[in-house]
Amino acid sequence: MDTGGLPVLDQRIAGCRACPRLVDWREEVARTKRAAFTDWTYWGRPVPGFGPDDASLLIVGLAPAAHGGNRTGRMFTGDRSGDVLYQALYDVGLASQPTAVSADDGLELHGVRVTSPVHCAPPANKPTPAERDTCRPWLVRELELLRPTLRAVVVLGAFGWQAALPAFAGAGWTVPRPRPAFAHGRQVTLDAAEGPALRLFGCFHVSQRNTFTGRLTPEMLREVLRTAADAAGLPTR
């Protein structure tokens, strides 16, 4: 996939129409909207990654939320999961502000990029295996473009973990066999035939189900982010 640099890749992702079910769903949500957002013009397209193109730390989620990223056009922006993630990034010094409400709100990430293995909002937040696999080349290319600076990755949730491992392999890192299972706090080192190894960290997803029940607390999230940032050579507070 010859897509140039990350800005070009992001543009190509935003124009993708490869999965008919996801295209229909994201556009239907953008038309019907949620009552609280009737004045919004929804993005209604695939949501590309967000963050600098020389990031040393990557955060991999699941997919955009129907009324979050699918509305605002930016990863984890405009929903409660994003509220938790960006607050934690701000708390540890990796984001310029603790809130993410729109794509033009001035938020900047420091050495961190946020992406997902599926770029369209899926019905019931559940992409099919075929949709996951169809979207994988985008993540592989994103990893290839980040490879000169990328040193650590935080993967949020088991779906993201399972979807990302083949992408790491496709981008040139060696994934152990058998593949390491997901767990919160799990740490795996992925060696490479050329260049430095990649440190992989598992973290429970920042979903409302996990944060409202206390399965994932703010301190648990901050701890994973600080550990991963240290592995990536990023300063934290």
From TrEMBL:
Residues 48-225 form the Uracil-DNA glycosylase-like domain. Belongs to the uracil-DNA glycosylase (UDG) superfamily. Type 5 (UDGb) family. SUPFAM superfamilies: Uracil-DNA glycosylase-like. InterPro entries: UDG_Type-4/5, UdgB-like, Uracil-DNA_glycosylase-like, Uracil-DNA_glycosylase-like_sf. This is Type-5 uracil-DNA glycosylase. It comes from Streptomyces parvulus. It holds the Pfam family UDG. PANTHER family: TYPE-5 URACIL-DNA GLYCOSYLASE (PTHR33693). The keyword Iron-sulfur applies. It comes from the Bacteria. The keyword Zinc does not apply. GO terms for molecular function: 4 iron, 4 sulfur cluster binding; DNA-deoxyinosine glycosylase activity; metal ion binding; uracil DNA N-glycosylase activity. One of its GO terms (biological process) is base-excision repair. Gene3D superfamilies: Uracil-DNA glycosylase-like domain (3.40.470.10). Keywords: 4Fe-4S, DNA damage, DNA repair, Hydrolase, Iron, Iron-sulfur, Metal-binding.
